[in-house]
Amino acid sequence: MSLLLRLADALNRDDRQALGLNLGLSMGLGLLANGMTLWLGRDTPADAVPWFAPPGWVAALVWIALFALLGAARWQLNSYTIIGVTLARTMVTLLIVVCLFWPIYSLSAVDLTIRLVGNVGTVLIAIASIVIVRQRSIEAASLITPLVVWLAFTTLVVIATMMQL
User: Fold this and answer.
1) Cα(82)–Cα(35) distance, rounded to whole angstroms?
2) Residue 4: its pLDDT value, please?
3) Residue 121 has what pLDDT?
């Protein structure tokens, strides 16, 4: 069995090791993406951001917590054997991958329109994920909901920044 198939099998189990693996992998990738973005964007001048916009390191901490929730939601779906749970797990995995790109398109060097489109697209994927996951597990869907709230907030920050310029 290949390494990827063994990883997928380990991630899709319903035990504590799989929980640690789901949390560790999603949080580790989130930490890597946010850390890399903070490092790359350290010398770029910031836009005229509104007063309620959090600094980059606060946003990174929020994202690490959100990645933990997404990893927990993915793991929670492992305890179900109903039809469609594979699609729900796949949607959460896709959502994790899409969220890994958020720090990149949120850099201050990136055009505000691209940031807005990225936020709206990520919100739509998150809402679609909630709809699909909720049909299998209300608890797992509730773990994705804070992501939508955070993305709505960051979208408001981008809109307010656009209005200031």
Assistant:
1) 38
2) 85
3) 96
pLDDT tens for 20-32 read 999 999 999 999 9
Tell me which amino acid residue 94 is. Answer: L
Q: Side chain identity at 147, as an amino acid letter?
A: L
Query: Cβ(135)–Cβ(84) under 8 Å?
Result: yes
What is the rounded distance in angstroms from the CA atom of residue 113 to the CA atom of residue 44? 18
Nearest to 8 by CA among 74, 99, 107, 67: 74
Residue 18 has pLDDT above 80, yes or no: yes
Mean pLDDT for the stretch of residues 133-157: 96
Phi and psi, residue 43, nearest 5°: -105, -5
Residue indicated by tokens 């930490």: 31
Q: How many residues does the chain have?
A: 165
Judge contact between 63 and 37, C-beta under 8 A.
no
Distance CA 73, CA 142 (A): 8
Do 55 and 106 meet the contact criterion of CB atoms below 8 Å apart? no
